[in-house]
Design a protein that fits this description.
The chain has helices spanning 2-10, 13-17, 21-28, 30-41, 44-57, 62-74, 78-91, 96-108, 112-125, 131-147. The chain is mainly alpha-helical and 149 residues long. The protein has a domain at 93-149. Helix 3 (21-28) crosses helix 4 (30-41), helix 4 (30-41) runs antiparallel to helix 5 (44-57) and helix 5 (44-57) packs antiparallel against helix 6 (62-74). Residues 1-20 have low confidence and may be disordered.
């Protein structure tokens, strides 16, 4: 019983992700899986190539679109970034990661009002505090402190 309690409180986030749609998709598509690894490594060209390939086969996967948006944002291709984040939210309007990252993309171009819209969306999506809301809130506060706006 103590061992079960320990596992329940101390398991890694990856352990909680097993069986999610994102994890299932990554297991089934090597380009998705390798694209996520490229994102984690900061290899934006490889991430874009691999995730774009996965997106051709899985046109309804919001997670792939979100990762593509993230890779393009980090490559400073904001037009493509906005396109993929928007597609992720079109596929899943409650995608917390896409709302957070799209808000951060808007901050990158100085559009605070749009970033705040996505913070508000996260507030309504997250019934209890969620990391995406906290991170975007922190990014907004940092933006205000840095720019004085």
């Amino acid at each position: 019983m103590v061992a079960l309690a320990f596992l329940g409180c101390c398991a890694t986030p990856a352990a909680h992700a097993v069986g999610t749609e994102e994890e299932d998709g990554a297991r089934l598509d090597p380009d998705f899986s390798n694209g996520r690894l490229a994102v984690e490594a900061g290899d934006w060209p490889a991430a874009i190539r691999l995730l774009s390939s996965a997106a051709l086969r899985d046109t309804r996967n919001a997670d792939i679109q979100n990762y593509l948006g993230y890779a393009y944002r980090n490559s400073d291709d904001m037009s493509s970034s906005f396109k993929h984040y928007s597609r992720a939210l079109q596929l899943n309007p409650r995608h917390r990661g896409a709302h957070e990252y799209l808000g951060e993309a808007y901050l990158k171009i100085g559009n605070v009002a749009k970033a705040e819209e996505h913070l508000s969306a996260l507030k309504s999506i997250c019934l209890i505090p969620c990391p995406e809301y906290g991170q975007l809130q922190k990014s907004l506060a940092e933006f205000h402190r840095r720019t004085g706006k």
